[in-house]
Amino acid sequence: MSVSLLYAFAGVALCAMGGLGFTVLEHLLRKLLAFNLMGSGVFLVLVGLAQHRGVPDPVPQAMVLTGIVVTIAATALAVVLMRRYYHLSGQTGLVVCEERKEPME
Amino acid sequence: MGRLTLVTAGMVFSGVFAGLAWAVWTIAEAPVPVSLPTLVSENLQAAGVEHPVTAVLLNFRSYDTLLEIAVLVIAGIAGISMSRTRSLEDPGLRTSDSLLYALERWFFPVMMLFAGYLLWAGSDRPGGAFQAGSVLAATAVLMRLGGVPMDFLRPGVMLRLGLTVGFSVFLVVALASALDGDVFLQYPEVITKPLIVLIETGLTLSIAMVLLALFVAAPIDPAEELEEGGAE
Amino acid sequence: MTDWLIDLTLVVALLVTGAATLLSRDLFRAVVMFIAFGLLMSLGWVRLHAPDIALAEAAIGAGLSGVLLLDAARHLGEVRRPSQRGEGEESD
Amino acid sequence: MTPWLMAGLLFTPLAWAVLTLFPAFRLGRVLTRLGILAQFLVAAGLWMTVAQDGGFYYPLGGWKAPLGIELRVDGLAVTFVVLTAVVACACGWHAGDYLSPETGRHRYFWPLFWFLWAGLNGVWLGADLFNLYVGLELISLCSVGLVALAGNVGALRAAIRYLLAALLGSLAYLLGVALIYGQFGSLSLAGIQALVASAESFPGAGVGLFIMILGLALKTALFPLHGWLPPAHGIAKSPVSALLSALVVKASFYIAARLWLALGEELGSFVLAQAVGVAGALAVILGSWLAFCQSRLKQVVAYSSVAQIGYLFLLFPLTFGVPDSVVQLAQQGIALQVISHALAKAAMFLAAGNLILSVGSNRVEALAGVSRFLPFSLFSFALAGVSLMGLPPSGGFTAKWLLLQASLASGQWWWLAVLLLGGLLSAAYVFRIYRASFVESRGQDQFYHPPRVLEAIPMMLALMSLCLGFVSEPVLAVMSLPFEEGG
Amino acid sequence: MASGALLPVFALMTSLLASLIIFTLPEDRGRVRTLVNIGAALIKLALVAVMIRGVAIGQEYLLAFDMLPGVEFVLRADALAMLFAGLSALLWLLTTIYAIGYLEASPNRSRFFGFFSLCVASTMGIALAGNLFTFFIFYEMLTLSTYPLVVHRGTPKALRAGRNYLIYTLTGGAVLLLGIVCLHGLVGDLRFQEGGHFAGAGPELRGALPWVFFLLVSGLGVKAALVPLHGWLPQAMVAPAPVSALLHAVAVVKAGAFGIVRVVFEVFGLESAQSMGLLSVLVVVASVTILYGSAMALYQVDLKRRLAFSTISQVSYIVLGLCLFGPVGAAGGLVHLVNQGIMKITLFFCAGNYAETLGAHRIDELDGAGKRMPGTSVAFTIAAFGMIGAPPLAGFITKWMLGIGALAEGMDWVVGVLILSSVLNAAYFLPILHRLWFRERTTPWPKEYRWGRLETSVWLFWPPLMTAVMTMAIGVFAAMPFSPLAWVILIVSREVAL
Questions:
Q1: What is the ipTM of this complex?
Q2: Within a domain: residue E11?
Q3: Which of B141, E185, E220, E346 gets the most CB atoms within 10 Å of its CB?
């Protein structure tokens, strides 16, 4: 067991935590936070597992860099959509408040 | 969300954790048949840059990076397509926070310098377009929170040019490299390094621009004009 | 041994901040915890011999997305009374 | 010749995406139509090249796998490239007349459309696990942006739901990639396939494969992970819905299928294969049932996608632990199903868009009298329906035939029931639409008549899906072309 | 590919093209539509006539290509195909003429005639299909193209009937498909072949084949309206009269019966089907259907419904003939394919005339119609007597052959069935005739139209008379060359090798 593997396990834990949060939490922004945690977890697994023999591996590192950029792009887009959605509907969740809505038409 | 659902989800994800941990453990025990780090260091000479991560990003696996920048540009486009189209600049936002205002004096120039350094360092040391771009973007966001006017954020030609400059440069290089019959993205050997630096510069600008555009594209004031949007 | 201690502490800190991000009742607080998490991640990347990622994580993970999410958290407060607008079918 | 074709395929869409970002909607339309023609020719050219000379690997940047990224240009991939060209052509052309140029944000349809096309081509040709991840993300973000273009609350909610589901799916996929990379140290699918074949067992990588398939199933909207699809496909503008249903969901399925066919035999298990198949069967039956219950036209079509996607996942049980001849049958059946569903569903969504445009409502009951005054739009919808029901001579029928044969030959007779029942259930929801349109309620023609182009495009797609059955044999022949050594 | 391969394709294409042209015609181009309709029908008739001549002298018309690896699309004109093709080409012409008159003023004519032609194209395909796969393609196409005809009127009743029609036929189609796939899985792609394929089938096949047979026949039995799969047929009566005529006489019901003929004769082979004990089950089903249909017809007050139940009963004569396991019986069954078609189409034309001209739908509204519409009523009477089996009309030929065939094979009880059914036929037809000719009209007609000199419109007047004349001619000239009976004997001699 090497140090890198420790991080890989931490990554696994983060994945599970993030996944749990992603499914259970209702507030969209919290879902997004959970998603980011999960993303970090996956990146840790990716690098930690690949480097568990102690040799730094530039390929997964480059992959994680790419992954981080993709994640931030997605996060930023999600924030734009969510704020727009909130702006138009006043909702912060996808299902939460639908019962409270006045009957339409 | 009922308690039952919560418990079920908790159990499911404990299971996920256990399964994944077991998988990681078994994988760590087995030998790895292919060693990419060795391959990378063997070919580093031909890659044109000394830093292996940059070599992977911009040479060995440059197609990934190209598509990744495309993802960024898409997010930017989707973001500005959602924004109120008149202007991305929101005067109502400017805070008169004295701390930020003070920061502006010395913090921003330093950050700019730092971004430039990161970009330049990328070829032989840790650093590169992503880091530089995100530092630049972060700085700009802070500047904007600090109330610095940014006219170039109008959704006009300038903004779009900024969004796509890095991507376009990358694309042109990719195409040009094939002109003399080579495969795509295969840089001519002599000018590999300048090309990579050129791409990186473009990317830095674009990354910063996209992130900034996405930051300001979100509708700012929830109180205003609720009627706007849906009905067209 | 010291290495192990450092790494263990870091990992525990990571998990704790991560959990705090998910569990904290206040949204703003959650985002702050997330920024802290990003900074710790950045340290973690240094420990994994990945300085490039560490830099990117510090700039993007902690800095940029932190600001982005903070700003969003400020505006996406509580559920507002929904507007009268219909769900909207395809409007064409 | 080949390099230029590859250039056309991979980079023209990207270049066009940048170009169309600048002009306003109308000029963007002109540009796009030019580009569409070029792309179509390029795709057809590549298809012919491959049909003549066989497939090859294309190393990008001159770096071969595992160090670099290779593209796998084989019969299956080029067939899908051509399929994409056909469907994207139709949808792009349709969108040019369908979307209103007056709405400001519609101009962004063009760059997103082109990026989507580029991403799809990337995925069909991809042979590198991480490259596929980036391609998937590209497609997802484009699709979300396109859904959100509709602009109202419902569309935003659908877009957010879609985005979250897509991101979760991609992350699961990436996690699987991490595990597989940890196990084999390589990202090239062909390389891993070769490694897997060596006698050892790789339980860890098996978990990786499982997670990847799970994530991809979420992105493909396999029952019960389908919740995000109907709102997104139902509320988006019709050309967008057509693109999403016809192509985008297929991209993630395509990756899952390629993974399974390459690694499934060694890394998968019988239980996993059957479980995926059962989920697919449930999707077929419940998806059709839900489609039958919808009151809005596009929701019917969207739920029908859920059902049709279910068929695709029968690939998993039908290719695990069975003789090669059966694998071949199942593979061909699924490929035909993908193609015919893509054509038919695109036709159906475009026709549904025309119908909605004409009657001014999304409700099924509003179609009364349509068969009298708008027979043409209805007819394209009907012909597409024939393919969805799996009735001859459509491509859906030949696909179903092959799948029936495969399930018989594999001894897994229980899928027979699913295939036959699914056909009947889809007839139920398709005929519900016709039935509504045959109701004679209004005395005179009060409908808006869309321009001829809008009506002609879905008709052509529907006819293609209908006639696919007759040319199934040559299409399948190209798909199963062997690889040219080296390349 | 010689011209021989193209003739079947042309025969298919005439109606397919006609349907496409008609679909694109605007509603008000009535003349062009009529021209296209009748022109295509005539061309098709000519093509079929050429092929019949060719087949008689032993020429081969074959088109085949692979649709899927190992699965062929085959169009082939053989004697059996020509029997059905000739019937449908002839009756299409008459029905088209009739339908033009019938729908003169009603809306949606383009749609109607488009699907009408499509329907005939499918029938032609069913006739010419050279293997079960191809047969299935056209069989399902027929289902789809008849649905719009059944729901043509768009009333809730029509829509309901359409729904039931679909439920029955699509389920039947699925079962048939399953049977075909199973058969394909067992023995591969099989072209139809005189004498069948399983004369020397080994025991391993003999275990599975009965199940396949069961699947195939129950799939086909839905369209052939074998009891208990007949439920859709009486309901489909809401369709306009020409549609009912077509459905009963040539298209749907006959497609099912024809399919059973193909399966028994040319897939399994009469002898192997018999030796596997498959036919003895079928003969019971057919007998039950004959008696049930006749009995139910007695209770119907609506004229078209009575005719519908009569169809259920009459079509099973065809099946019954096959199951008698003898050349004579088989010939009787096959010839009924034509006879029943011509007689039944006459009856439906007449029923349509009564409805269109007098507004009379129920049997008790027909009092005295013979005086008002003598031409139509004469036609109706001839056809009805034909159905009962009175010599020398068409129906007599059938019953005679069937009876002789049954006696020859020692199945005497079948003769009982035939006699009983004839009595029932008489019981439900004679009261109608009585009302037509021997009752005085006391009340005005429910809804009367007048068309100048003739008792009804020209388009409606001639077709039933022509088919009535044919009913007589078939019976009287049964021994002539190219009469249906002579043709059927040619077929049977090729199938069973006398």
A1: 0.88
A2: no
A3: E346
